[in-house]
Task: inverse folding
């Protein structure tokens, strides 16, 4: 009977394609929008992801997310270093500073000041130059996207712009800064170029303030429980201490709770679900209605409701699987071809599962609406002309 | 209660069936008395709306009646649950419809296999048996044709093969020739008479078509929800 169910479905080519296309569209919209949402939210903690060496981030207790910098006194670094279970601790400066370009324009940059001695917290990938070059006088390293876009220089011919290159000079807050390397970093939620330099030089670039230490990055001693160490740091210093994952979660939660991102993307995802349900459900229901005479015939010939239910579910399962596969495949292609652009797209296993669950729900709803008619069908309709 | 004789296949006494259409109620059967014997082909005739189709629906077990008694092969269908009745139909009843009701996306062979697949018989076994019956009704060269590739008479022969393939004891035919020309109608009735009828099987045909009356052993005339006469005749 299952092969008959499939032939009934596939034989009506236009309806069959209509249902599959409806589900493909729903699957595409749900997966694509969810992937963009996930990609965007991943960017919110991109800076934490890039700084992978420390286990623990120490900061002012009022900090809510990575870009919410509330500076500490420099002495807090030594207090953290003195705590039992801390293998090492280094300072990190993070701030938005104004850079003056050669053409006279200004650009706000996200400046990261790394520990002078160890350069811990440096960029994950150097595309040109070396991280150690930061030890040269006035040196900075710039991210490749920033170098080729917002920090791009006028070309020597005078036509257009060329990417910022090694040897180029900027002025950061009236201080000379020489580019010694180009790096690749995770895209962040903010669009400013990222500039790496040493902690001491960063505090020179920054406007004078009493406190300039943004974060203390700490490494736990071998065998030390991270949660216990965080508690100990908080207890002894009065500062907040989080594991890298906790800090990511905190940043993620902040953007979830305080921005319109979830509702905006949630609306698109919900729309995809509703439209998918409407198109697929309506087409599937019409398909069932048009086949009611044949379902009645099968019923008259001895097909039980259970057989008809399984036939309908199988039909629904087939179109669901096809629609899901095509939708997720198209979304993946979309992400693949636009991967090198500004698009934030992150298709995870969980998202594929979520999309699959949504499509399954649409199919089950469609099948239930249809099967209700089939189960209530009087087999005596077969004698109606 | 009158007890039916052993060779009686269908035994109806004072069967009443009404339909509710909004505020009014229509009495489709007003106390039908009918006996149909094993090995007999009976034709039900009468004007439109006289209750012919309602009566065969009751006898075939696809419609419940309101009052009276209706036994088919000693089974009181009214006393059966829906599931048992569905199973009973699958094993004991074959249907031939006016509009054929062949599944349009299946071939003749697949359409004929459906009753066997419903009974849980394997696909290969079902197709072997279906092929045999299609050959018997003269469709050897049309096994893999879909309904839209067949003429009306061929489609009806596929429907007859489908009604016979699971060897049911009762075959009900609703206007089997009304969509066919006279010659094709005669051919179809000849197939029904020769292939469907056997000593342990009963065929009930509902029709308006007086040209096929000669295929009946008896003709039951209905009017206004009642059987008004039953005439025996020598079938050809």
Result:
């Amino acid at each position: 009977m299952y092969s008959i169910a499939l032939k009934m479905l596939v034989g009506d080519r236009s309806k069959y394609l209509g249902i599959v296309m409806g589900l493909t569209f729903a699957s595409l919209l749900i997966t694509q929008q969810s992937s963009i949402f996930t990609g965007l939210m991943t960017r919110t903690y991109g800076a934490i992801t890039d700084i992978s060496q420390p286990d623990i981030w120490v900061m002012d207790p009022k900090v809510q997310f990575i870009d919410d910098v509330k500076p500490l006194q420099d002495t807090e670094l030594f207090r953290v270093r003195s705590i039992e279970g801390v293998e090492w601790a280094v300072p990190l400066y993070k701030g938005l500073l104004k850079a003056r370009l050669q053409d006279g324009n200004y650009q706000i940059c996200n400046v990261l000041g790394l520990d002078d001695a160890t350069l811990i917290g440096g960029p994950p990938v150097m595309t040109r130059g070396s991280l150690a070059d930061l030890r040269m006088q006035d040196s900075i390293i710039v991210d490749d996207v920033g170098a080729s876009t917002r920090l791009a220089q006028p070309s020597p011919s005078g036509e257009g712009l060329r990417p910022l290159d090694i040897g180029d000079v900027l002025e950061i807050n009236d201080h000379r800064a020489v580019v010694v390397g180009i790096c690749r970093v995770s895209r962040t939620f903010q669009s400013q170029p990222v500039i790496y330099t040493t902690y001491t030089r960063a505090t020179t670039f920054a406007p004078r303030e009493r406190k300039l230490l943004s974060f203390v990055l700490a490494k736990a001693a071998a065998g030390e429980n991270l949660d216990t160490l965080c508690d100990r740091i908080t207890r002894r210093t009065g500062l907040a201490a989080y594991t890298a994952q906790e800090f990511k979660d905190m940043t993620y939660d902040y953007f979830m709770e305080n921005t319109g991102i979830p509702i905006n993307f949630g609306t698109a995802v919900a729309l995809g679900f509703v439209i998918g349900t409407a198109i697929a459900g309506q087409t599937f229901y019409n398909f069932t209605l048009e086949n009611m005479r044949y379902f009645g015939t099968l019923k008259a010939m001895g097909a039980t409701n259970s057989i008809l239910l399984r036939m309908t579910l199988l039909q629904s399962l087939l179109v669901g699987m096809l629609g899901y596969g095509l939708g997720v495949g198209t979304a993946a292609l979309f992400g693949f071809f636009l991967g090198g652009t500004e698009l934030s797209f992150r298709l995870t296993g969980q998202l594929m599962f979520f999309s699959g669950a949504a499509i399954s729900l649409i199919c089950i709803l469609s099948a239930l609406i249809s099967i209700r008619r089939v189960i209530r069908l009087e087999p005596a309709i077969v004698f109606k002309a | 209660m009158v007890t039916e004789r052993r060779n009686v296949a269908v035994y109806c006494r004072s069967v009443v069936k009404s339909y509710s259409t909004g505020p009014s109620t229509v009495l489709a059967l007003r106390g039908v008395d009918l006996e149909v014997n094993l090995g007999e082909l009976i034709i039900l005739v009468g004007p439109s709306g006289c209750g012919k189709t309602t009566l065969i629906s009751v006898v075939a077990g696809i419609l419940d009646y309101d009052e009276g008694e209706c036994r088919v092969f000693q089974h009181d269908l009214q006393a059966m649950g829906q599931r048992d009745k569905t199973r009973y139909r699958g094993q004991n009843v074959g249907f031939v419809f006016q509009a054929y009701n062949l599944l349009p996306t299946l071939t003749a062979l697949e359409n004929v296999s459906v009753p066997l697949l419903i009974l849980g018989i394997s696909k290969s076994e079902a197709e072997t048996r279906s092929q045999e019956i299609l050959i018997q009704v003269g469709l050897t060269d049309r096994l893999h044709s879909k309904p839209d590739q067949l003429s009306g008479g061929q489609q009806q022969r596929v429907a007859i093969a489908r009604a016979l393939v699971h060897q049911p004891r009762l075959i009900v035919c609703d206007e089997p020739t009304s969509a066919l020309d006279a010659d094709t109608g005669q051919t179809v009735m000849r197939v029904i008479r020769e292939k469907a009828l056997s000593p342990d099987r009963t065929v009930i045909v509902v029709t308006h078509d007086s040209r096929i009356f000669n295929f009946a052993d008896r003709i039951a005339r209905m009017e206004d929800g009642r059987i008004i006469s039953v005439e025996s005749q020598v079938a050809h």
